Amino acid sequence: HTWTNIRGVEVAQTVKMDRRGELCPVAKLTTDAVLEIRSSSISGKELAAKYGVTPATVTDIRKKRSWKHIH
């Protein structure tokens, strides 16, 4: 339960300081990677392996459920 509390504080601080995307200290992706994911015809599974994220993360990026601030 300690990890959850620490992570919750970390997320709250990140939001408060408006450190979205690659400005977030724990981000695995860059703005360029997000733009490539959105424009690519490569499968989500392949892109996930390429960038070290899950296929669900790729789907969320493509559907603009995450990285919404990147247009």
Provide tags for this entry.
mainly alpha; 71 residues
How far do the termini sit from each other? Answer: 36 Å
Which structural category do the helix and sheet elements fall into?
mainly alpha
The share of residues in extended strands comes to under 5%
Give the number of DSSP strands.
Answer: 0
**Largest sheet at a glance?**
none
Describe what you observe in this structure.
- This protein is mostly helical and 71 residues long.
- The chain has four helices and no strands.
- The protein has helices at residues 2-16, 31-39, 44-51, 55-62.
- Helix 3 (44-51) packs across helix 4.
- It is globular, with a radius of gyration of 13 Å.
Short description:
By secondary structure, this protein is an all-alpha fold. The chain has 4 helices and no strands. Helix content is 56%, strand content 0%.
Question: How are the SSEs ordered, and which strands pair?
Answer:
Elements: H1 2-16, H2 31-39, H3 44-51, H4 55-62
